[in-house]
Each structure stands twice: as C-alpha cells, then as structure tokens.
Amino acid sequence: MDELGSVDRLGPELILLAFAGIIVLTDLVVQRRWLVVGGSLLAVAGSLIWAGTLVARDMRGSAFDGLLVVDNFSLFFAFLFAGIAAVVILASIDYSERFSRYQAEYYALILVSAAGMMLLAATVDLIAIFIVLELTGISLYILVAFLKDMRSSEAGLKYLLLGALSTAVTLYGMALLFGLSGSTSLDDIGNVVAAANDDTRAAVVMAMVFLVAGLGFKMAVVPFQMWVPDVYEGAPTPITAYLSVGSKAAGFAVVMRIFFEALGDRSISSDWSNMFAAVAAISMTVGNVVAITQTNIKRMLGYSSIAQAGYLVVGLAAISAAEGEFSLGASGVIFFLAAYAFTNLGAFIAIIAISNRINSDEIGDYAGMIRRAPLLALGLTLCLVSLTGIPPTAGFIAKVYIFNAAVQSDLVWLVIVGVLNSVVSAYYYLRVVLQMFLEAPASEERVSAGPSLGLAMAIASGGILFIGILPFLLLEVSETAARTFGS
Amino acid sequence: MLNTIPEAVVWAIFLLPLSSFVIISLFARRWPQRSGYITIAAIGISFLFSLWVLDSVIQEDGANLGFPTHEWLTIGSLTLNLGLTVDGLSAIMLMVVTSVSLLVQIYSQGYMHGDPGYSRYFGFMSLFTAAMLGLVLAENLIMLFLFWELVGLCSYLLIGFWFERPAARAAATKAFVVTRLGDLGFLSAILLIWTQTGELDIPNIQEMAMTGAIGTVILTWLAAGVFAGAVGKSAQFPLHVWLPDAMEGPTPVSALIHAATMVAAGVYLVARFFPIFSASEEAINSVAVVGGITALIAASMGIVVTDIKRVLAYSTISQLGYMMLALGVGGFAAGIFHLFNHAFFKALLFLGAGSVNHATHTFDMRRMGGLRHFMPWTFVTFVIASLSLAGIFPLSGFWSKDEILSAAWEDQRLLFWVALVVVFMTALYMGRAIFLTFGGEYRGGEAPPGEQAGHEAQPHESPPVMVLPLVVLAVAAVVTGFLNLHHGVTDLLEGWLPELALERATEIEFHFGLATLSMIFGLAGFIVAWAIYGARLLSADRLRQAFGPVHRLLVNKYYMDWLYEDQLVRRVVVRTVAGGLDLFDRYVVDGAVNTTAWLTQFSASRLRLVQSGQLQLYAAAIFVGVVLIVAGILIVNP
To answer: How many A×B Cβ pairs under 8 Å?
Structure first.
C-alpha cells in the first residue's frame, strides 16, 4: 500500500519518462512529426493533471523511504517545469525542422530533463539529488549539441566538460556533509549542522562553499557563469530558452532545498547569507555591464540571464526578513522564478520567430521590426520591459518584492546596487526596443510567427501582464510554497 | 434620479477608453475608420457613466461616495492600495474630460480624415483620455503619479504625432523635458510624505494634515513639491515655455490638452490638495502669486503673436494662471468652476481655429481675413467663445471670472488689480484675433500641400462632422455659467472639503460693482481692438513703433526661451557638462575600449596557441571563485 502511494507521488515525473520512452520507440516504427509533438504535449498535459490531482486529493507527504517528498514547494515547481516544457515544445515545432531525422530524440530529451528538474525540487536525500542532477544535466548536454554544427557541438562539449567539473565540486561538498553527519538525508544533516561546534563548523562552511560553487553552475551566477554566453549562442534557440529558465529555476530549487533544510540553522545561515549577498552584487554588475557591449541578441540575453540570476540571489541573501511563517526572501525567489519564466521564454520565442525568418541574431537586424512583425515586436517589447522591471509587468512586481525583502533584512546597500543595475540594464534592453521602433527596416518583407509560436507568445505575454496587474494569486501561491521551509 | 452608482461602473469610466486603446493598437490597424468609431463609442459610454456619477454625487451633496479601498499588493510592511475618489470635485472633472474629449473625437474624424496615422491617432487619444480619467479618480499617490506620468507620455506622443517634422519632434521633447522638471518636485513630495508618515492614501494624508499630525514645515515642503508638479503640467511661470510650442501637434490634440486633459491636471492636483495648501500660509500665497504673474505675462504675450493657435495658447496659460490665482486666494470653487467653463469655450476656440486652418491651410492670421463670409458657423461660434473668454455678460466666462475677482478682492487686493488688467488684455487679444481672422478682406491663405502656391480658391465651411461639435460647445459656452447662480456648483465642489479647509475657502458674494467694473475693462479691450484692427482708427504699425522696446520684449517672449535654451542649456549644460563628458569619453572610455580591444586581440592570439585554452580559463574561474569565497568568509567571520 505504501509502495503504491510512493509511486502515486512520483506520478507527474513518471508520466514524462514513460512518454519519452514511448515516443522514441514509436518513432522507430512510424515517423510522423505530429505524433512526436502531440505525444510530448500529451505527456506534459498528463503530468500537469496528475500534479493537480495530488493537490486536489491532498497527497502531500514523503515517498520511497524519505528520498522524495511531495510538498507545496515541490508541487509549485512541478507545475512550473511542466509549463516551461510545454512552452519550449511549442516553440520547437518550427525550429526542429533543422534536424528532422532526430525529432523524437529531441522531444524525448526535453521530457526527460523536465522530469529531472521536477525531481530536483522534490528530492530530499543527497544521493537522490545527485542522480537527478545528472539526469537533468546529461539530457541537456545532448540537447545543446543537437544542431551538430561547429558552434553547437563546441557549445555542447564546453557545457559537458564544465558541467562535469561542477558536478565533481558538488559531490565534494556532499561528501563533506555525509562525512560530518553519517547520513544522506537532508533532515538528519540539518540536525547535525544545528549541533555543530567550532571544530566541525569549518567543515560545514567548506561544504557550503563547494555546494554553492557546484550548483552556482546551474544557477549561472558569477564566477560560475563562464559557460553561459558560449553555450547560449551555440545551442538551438529553444534549448537556450529552456536553459535560461528551466535549468536555472531547477538550480535555485535545489539550492533552496539544501540550504534551507540542511544548512538552515542560524549559526551557519548568516554565513551563506553574506556569501549570497556578495555573489548577487557581483552577478548583477558583471551581467549587466557586459551585456551592454553585446551585438548578438542571444549573447545579450545570456548575460542578461546572469544579471537576473543576481537579482534572484538577492532573495537568497534576504533570509532574515521573516513574515509570519515564511521567509520573504524565499517567497521572493519563487515568485521571481515564475515571473522570469514567462518573461524570458517570451523574449526567446520572439527571437526564434524573427531569427527563423531573417536568419540573424544580430540586434542591428531587428531594425524596424515593428513594421515587419508588429505583434512579435510588441510582444518582445513587453518582455524586455518586464526584464527591465517597469510596470505594469511581472518583472516589476518581482523586483519590488525581492528588493523589499532585502530592505527588511537590512541589506540596503544590496538594494542600491540592484536598483543601479536595473537602471544600467534599461540601456541595453530598451536599445533593442528603440531599434525595432525607430530605425528603418532593412527590407519590407513581413515576418510572421506560425500558430504554435504565436500561441506560445500569447501565453507568455498574457502571463507577464496577468502577474503584473493582478499579482495576488501568484503571491499567495509562492508564499504557500515558501512556508515549506518555515522562517 | 437614479440609484447610487455601483463601483464597477465607476471603474468602467476609465477602463473603457483604456480598452479602446488596447483594441485599436492590436487589431484596428487595417481598418482605420473603425478606430474612430471605437474611440467615440468608448468615450461616449464613459460620458454617460460620468453623468450617472454626477447624479449620485449631487444626491450626496458632493461628499465622497466612500467606495472601499482594495488592497492591490502587500509585500511585508509595504501595502499598495487601489481605490476611487468620487466626490464633487472628481465628478465635475469627469464631466469636463469626457464631454470635451467626446466632442473632440467626433470633430477629429473630419480633421484627421485621410491621415496615414489615423488609427494611431485615435489609439493615443483614447489612452490620453483614459490616463486623465484615471488621474482624476485615483485615491492614492502612487496611482495618481502613474496616471500623471501617463498623461505626460501621451502628450509627448501626440504633440510629436507628425514626428517627421523636426519642429514637432522638438516641441514634443521640450514639453516632455520641461514638465519633467516639475514632476521631479512632485515625486520628491510623494517620497517625503511616505517616509514621514508611511501613508499614501490621499484622504488619510489630508486628515493627518488637518489634525496637525504632520508638522507645518513638512506640510509646506509637501505643498511646494505638489505645486512644482502642477506648475510644470499646467504651464505656470516659469515653466510655461513648453505650451506655445506644443501647437505642433494636430489641432484637436491642442483642444484636448488645453481644455480638459494635460494642463487641467495641474489645477486639479492643487485643488485636490487644497486642504494641505490651506494649512500652510506660505504655500497658498505662492500659488496665488505665481498664478497672478502667469496670468499677466501670458496675456501680454498673447497680444503680439500672429499665429492664431499661439494666441489661444497664451490665452490658456493666462487663464490657468487665473485658476491658480483663484485657488491661492481661497476661491476653491471659483477656480474649478472657471476650469469647467474654460474647458468648453477653450475647446471651442481651438476647434474653431482648426476649422479655419482646414479652410485656409494656415494658422497665420496675417493671411486670413474676411472669413465671416465663407464660414458663418465657425465665425459665430468663435465669437461666442471669445466673448465668453473675455468675460462678457451673460456668457459663462463672466460668471466664473467674476467669482475669481470677488475672491481676490476679499483676500489680496493687489492681485485683484492684476486680474482686472488681465481682463482688459484678454479682451484685447481676442478682439484682435477675431478682427484679423474674420474681419476685413480675405488675404489668400496658403496653398494646400501638393497644389501650386497662390491658392486663390474660396475657403469653404468645414464638413458637418466638424461643425456639429462647434455648435454643441457654443451652447455650453453660453449656458454653463448659469449653473452656479444659486451656488449649486460651489456647494457640490466644496462638499468633500474638511471643516478646517472650508474655513480657509473664501465666501463669495456677487458684487454688482465688481461685475460692472470687469465688464467695463472687458468692453474697453474689445473697443481698443476694434479701433486698431477693425476700424483702423489707429495704425498697428505706428503703435508698434511707439512701443518699440515693449513690443520687442513681448515678441521675444520676455527672452525666456533665450535664457533657457541659449544660456542655460547651450552655455551651461552643453559647454561644461557635455564638455567634461566629452573629455571623459575621449580619454577614459575610448582608452578603455582601445585597451580592451588590444587585450582581446592579444589574448586571442595567445589562446590560439593552446587549443581549448578558453575552457581551461573557464574552469580556472570556478576554482578561483571557490578560493575567493572561502577567503571572504574567513576574513568576515574567522
């Protein structure tokens, strides 16, 4: 009975994995694109329904002898990652013609990595965390190299090698924690850390630093971000979008899980709060300053995603702002991740649609796009405005929320750095807007998005405006999710 | 009498034009004609709803209807609310904005006919109206400021509507930058009040001010900041310079800006904060003085310009100064009542000027003349509006101007005399405009674009879609003054004022003597205008020579543009600041760029020698990062 309950709780991930297998196998027999795409969308829908059922029937609880837990936090991310996967699949339909022979593998890998990301938010045991980290990582390495041209292969190789390195560093940190506590369960480790004396404290700090270094690779924060521009530029654009929101969110989910549950004790949390504050300030500044000089829009969004990771880390630093039963910083990160997912996906969808037609990622070639593709240009403008953090968009509320949490944790200096950075970022985000609205178009040929990209763009824009104008729903949800960790 | 209006309907008043903007910008590009209909329908319904609001407010004697405040967003201790202010003041403002906007939109269908930006025009007009309605209804400072800025943005877009013309671009930028100076003050005031009291809802702030919970010094600074914002938006001295240039936009836009939206926002803001101004003697006196100065200098400049729209622009500045003066001497209701009357006759004047332009293709009065024969409707309505503006009995301008004069008489005698001189000047420049435009013989106009110069064809009356709004507005310009015969409007407007602020408001009685005096001054202005420009008893050229220095001063707009643009901007800002930046750019930025370029090339050439060297660098960064973090933690917390 208990075993069955465990399997039930794993349902959303299992559906994705099962469909991934079915898609690859079916493709051996009948090669039909609509079957592959339909199958993957069906998988995501099934996963969403199952996750919804878990909520409706209140099936929260732990599974598989405490390896896995279904709580509000993991459920939030299950919905988020399923949503991201759905949009990425929609955005891939036109693009994937470039590698027509391996369609099934492409979509199957997206499903597998999505399952891995969901699990990253749900696992509470170091061994399990490590395995799902690899599951996510390896499927993404392949996806990055999927175009199999020079740049894509180079990007894939770089991603793989640096990923392997970061995994090793993570593993080192985990080993230290295991050595200290004799357990792989985050709960047990948390108890041991709380009882740490001066002798063991140094080891805990070292473990913490290694974990940040290893997982910082996934979050893409400075100085663990070096791979970002090269990989973002070389990867297939839908996969770049996927990396920039999915992989990043998964990194933040697992960091929150480990740091709040295993390292959440006051004696150590002030250390990592300071460390995150420093990382946040550097990431925001490096990302924004370097983004200014970029002429390739994918590279620019790569650096922008480093800066956005910096804003997110502000939330991790702001742990001492407690509001009742949850940390404002934690709920801020969760809220920001969802807002950012809509925003950045939207931006990439517009880029996919436009680049597909004009065959260029240069910002200069976006001149006069408002006349060639009015709806796409408007959508991209909305996304860039949201990334800058101007009302009435999701990005504005997310920034206000996280900066407010930082103010209440007495991190005023960090907020000043963040606000200055937002001003800097307005320059390069809005430069694209100016280019699209004011410059003369290079040609009069119209650029149009297909129905699938159009739908994806509509979802993203709708989300940005909905969260920006009526934020309470998502606020409530993220605060509920943040309650998982207490304050 | 209807039932009290439900809250949702009040929200719809500004959401309707807003949705019209969204619909037009998303879908209506391909069918420009429909954008006009959508806009008119949306604003028309808003107008009907505004009537309902007025009805409900009258039943409450102008008190706040007290709709609940909705919490929009709570982050920790910061709470942002959404709420509506519906009282006598906002009900009157809603009426003004929706009715004038509606008529302007109808007129625009004729005026903008065939313009390639037809759809864009109506989209922006919808947004402009929505922003102004939102501003009037906003209950807290954040919402108010948001709509305030949105109004500014829309005016920028509409003044620069024909952005291919350099003059239009320059005018739009000037309007945006100059008003932004005032907004800086407004924003500081908001930050000040929030840091001092933690309160953003206007009624609560006013209550605190009335009960003495906020110190007088803070109150004075708060009022000063709010007034700075109003000075920018309402084109008061010394920030009035943007409004005459704003004529570069399409004429119906000017009508809307001058009558109901943009510039009315500043007066509304001061009126909305009247309780706070009334608590600080310094603040309210400066409002009166600035208003008086503005009224005087703007009227004097209006006498010498030759562009009919610029005459009207200076007249607007002058009349706005009048309203500020009224608020400053405690004539709260008088000021807003004047705004109400002014909206109709000023919109009428602009639409009339647009109609004249439609026929003659010029705004230069020296090329018009004799148009009374060709455009009877435009002529008659324009004259009605001018008489109303000059305050001739029994037109609407007479009644509100008389109230302002009475209030000034009771409160500040000196300003009363200033106001009286302005009455004379107003009549003089309006008389001059009428005689130059409609009197005498036709002087040829200007060739329409695409036709040969020396266009001799007869000008003709504008199409009915343009004449109809003129007639409706003319009726309003005649009758609206009677509304306050029994102080109905005054009571309605003052219904929401707290007791203490009400004490500061000057009680206004009808003075027969004052009314006669102002009538004499007004008629005198018209007679002088007739003598010079109508009957030509006096030669305009002779007068110009006689008053040479004065004339030069006025034509050069008191040298204020010269002071701002040539001296302040070009000399100070461009030479020193930009010069410094240029040096910085040349040596520091370029130096850094060149160094980076050299470094990149150098490292690229090195890196080529070591295959995948970059990757090693990336990996090294990870380890350096780890070491730095550990070192950092050890230093901070050994």
So the answer is: 81
